[in-house]
Amino acid sequence: MTGPGALLVVGDVVTDVVAIHPEPLAPATDTAARIRTLPGGAGANAACWAARTGTAEVRLLARVGAESARWHERALVDAGVRPRLVVDAQEPTGTVVALVGKDAERTFLTDSGASLRLCPADWAPSLLDGAAHLHLSGYLFFADSSRELAEIALGAARARGVQVSVDPASAGFLAALGPQRFLDAVAGVDVLLPNEDEARLLAGLPEPTGVARAAAELSRLVPLVVVTRGAAGALIAEHGRITAEVAAEPARAVDSTGAGDAFTGGFLAARLQGADPAEAARAGCRAAALAVTRPGGRP
To answer: Is 281 left (phi over 0), alpha (psi -120 to 50) or beta?
Structure first.
């Protein structure tokens, strides 16, 4: 890493409606569930976890609707994040309905709302002043205006010598966009943080293929690739080979929503403090293990 400095996250803020249902969904009738409305968003979640785990300053650029802007801003400030939230005049804050089954795995219903309406006009070069690292949420790359903003931010960071990481965010959206189009858009990043499905998809490998091969192939394109594997921990690949495998921390999982975001936040905070990739991945695994023990994706 480039030394001490701020972490700038450019990404998404959404409202999560988390429904934890111990029994399978019953079509055409009621299914008992515990339902909570919580602040979320992959970028915002990662920023909050990074702030919690010790990074001196964490900034967030995102777009929200007027109806919940103050609520989201207060939640971020309370978590130790310095938010720059652009209030959208046309769309409400994005909403994600997370259906969480007995196994703690989640299925998302996503209305991106204002979150993917970030645009180049929302960018300010001063956001990078004093920054040591830029993290881009992969969701930005799934809409034209936010992808253009992400590419501007990436170029600005590279021009300043600021390292950049990207979390691909969604295998479903990634498949719709096209893996090669995504890889072209993130060319020049220093760190890629996919999960297993995203890694295989980006590497162009079939599902039965070992994820280690996918990680190694991707690290020929991006210097450092860290693949999150849920209960199996994380794989680290550099320059075409696997360099470390990190075990997950034991946890009694309630809701896996935001576990990957927690890993990202913990990983980036540790890297900013000088940790090597394996040490940072262990910090990420600790954050993820804590995240799954409670509903929602925030600390």
So the answer is: alpha
Neighbours of 267 (CB within 10 A): 33
Question: Residue 2 pLDDT > 80, yes or no?
Answer: no
Please report the pLDDT score of residue 21 as a whole number: 93
Q: What is the average per-residue pLDDT within 49-72?
A: 93
**Residue 26 burial (CB count, 10 A):** 10
The pLDDT confidence band at residue 3, using thresholds 50, 70 and 90, is very low
Please check whether residue 198 is in contact with residue 191, taking contact to mean a CB–CB distance below 8 angstroms. Answer: no
